[in-house]
Amino acid sequence: MKNEKTVKLCICALFAALTAVLSQISIPLPPIPINLATFSVFLAGALLGAKYGALSQTVYVLLGAIGVPVFSSFRGGIDVIVGPTGGYIVGYILAAALVGWIVDRYGLQIRVLVIAMFSGFLTYMICGTCYYMFLTKSGLIAALMACVVPFLIGDFLKMVLAIVLARKLRPILSKLK
User: Fold this and answer.
1) d(CA 14, CA 139)
2) Is residue 6's pLDDT more than 70?
3) Chain-wide mean pLDDT for the chain?
4) Which of 173, 133, 163 is nearest to 43 (CA)?
5) What residue numbers bound the domain in which 110 lies?
């Protein structure tokens, strides 16, 4: 149905914009700033499903890659993608897809959402940390201390909020078809 696809694409655009806005709400810690973008990634996957959740984050990444200042600290450009945070940013696409796939397949029960969000978290953290290690020639422990440990509490809180909102909003969004 044409109208349903139009609605989904508009919601994808809104989630790309939400990720861009939430990227600006950050604590600038080197080498990786703490921001709220991952909350949008979790929610996009849970609300839009695998295909459209990933599409929303692909739009976000592509906008940033062509120079639109959507990344943290109003940065944009391919240099951000190939820089130390690039693996995390690209990992958002895979994380949203995985969260969406799990929710699409298994539903909105709390345990499913916990598994989905944690899987998404692991996905972008593995992508980002491996790329960071490759780029900076860091060891695993040093990379984990710089790029994972400082984010654990904040990401846990973002996952909890995304779970609560996904359970409330997904039924409402399904009525927009």
Assistant:
1) 38
2) yes
3) 94
4) 163
5) 2-174
